[in-house]
Specification:
With 307 residues, this protein is of the alpha/beta class. The protein has 12 helices and 12 strands. Strand 3, helix 6 (107-124) and strand 4 (128-134) form a beta-alpha-beta unit. The longest helix is centred in the N-terminal third of the chain and has 22 residues, at 67-88. It is elongated and about 70 Å long.
Length: 307
């Protein structure tokens, strides 16, 4: 089997190419790769010569990948983790390891798991760094294409990804202390009679809530949209807004006289909160370590043994 193309290629450029295709911006890619802009431009030119393709082209919206660039980006998402595992072998020592993990989650997951998780990661693996990005419409795609390593979500992942439940969660309604609804549990009639502050997690809203209402032919009135659960809670006092939050997210307001916590309508059932990752990293000891740390943190924080 001839491997002339492999002999002529500089494999060190593959990671740079992955970063360029992800950022679609030479300066940002250079910053991530710790190169000057001019050096990264030279890297891009070498990559174009190696692959015989422009890879990235300028458009009115900035750089966009060519069809060949899109194909390579998809293939690198599988290839680079496998190369890393091949070169490193099965040995992974957190105390001496260097690396970077990218996690997508809501501010709820960050506030619930973050304090315990971050302390443990940096205590056990001082050479490891983390980036936490907000959960959004592209998050599952980012995991599929290798732009994110782990996703923490209340929305079960598509079949192309692996999923493990961390704990079961249910909804509660956070109200102002002087809200007209005084019942301990809201009915659907109560729920749809007043405006809501909606957290724009996925598809511009809270997918699970909207789906349940759709099943009953109902819609809620949106008075305010915010990107974070903490912002939704801050908007409630002194208004008739209803914030529908995970129960554990509302615990911080139980003793605050400005708020009242009521059970959500029975029609809004509990839901699994879990983690999603791509099958390509199943054999990677660093990723297995990270997932285990998340699972153990969940058990410590919630008392629920993760899958």
């Amino acid at each position: 089997m001839s491997m002339s193309h492999l002999r002529n290629a500089d494999l060190n450029l593959l990671e740079a190419l992955a970063v360029l295709l992800e950022e679609r911006h030479v300066t940002r890619a250079a910053d991530r790769f710790r190169l000057s802009q001019s050096a990264m431009s030279r890297v891009l030119q070498r990559l174009r010569e190696t692959f015989g393709d422009e890879l990235l082209v300028r458009t009115q919206r900035g750089y966009e990948p060519t069809p060949r660039g899109q194909q390579i980006q998809s293939e690198l998402a599988d290839l680079l983790p496998r190369l890393e595992t091949l070169l490193r072998g099965d040995a992974f020592d957190p105390a001496t390891a260097n690396g970077h993990f990218r996690i997508h989650c809501t501010d709820y997951a960050t506030s619930l798991l973050g304090p315990t998780l971050f302390r443990r990661v940096f205590r056990e693996a001082p050479g490891i760094s983390l980036s936490v990005a907000p959960l959004g419409d592209e998050s599952f795609t980012d995991v599929e294409q290798g732009r994110a390593d782990l996703l923490v979500s209340g929305v079960v992942a598509p079949r192309s990804l692996h999923w493990a439940t961390l704990f079961e969660e249910d909804f509660v309604c956070l109200l102002s202390h002087d809200h007209p609804v005084t019942a301990e549990r809201l009915t659907l009639e109560d729920f749809t009679a007043y405006p809501h502050v909606v957290i724009t997690v996925l598809a511009g809203g809270q997918t699970m809530v909207e789906r349940r209402l759709d099943e009953h032919g109902l819609r809620r009135t949106t008075g305010l949209r915010v990107p974070y659960f903490s912002a939704a809670a801050a908007a409630v006092p002194g208004t008739e807004l209803i914030a529908t939050l995970p129960r554990r997210a509302a615990l911080a307001y139980d003793d605050d006289p400005a708020y009242r916590v009521a059970a959500a309508p029975e029609e809004l059932p509990s839901f699994p909160y879990g983690i999603a990752w791509h099958p390509r990293v199943d054999s990677d000891p660093a990723h297995r370590w990270l997932q285990q740390i998340v699972r153990e943190t969940t058990t410590q924080v919630t008392g629920h043994r993760a899958d």
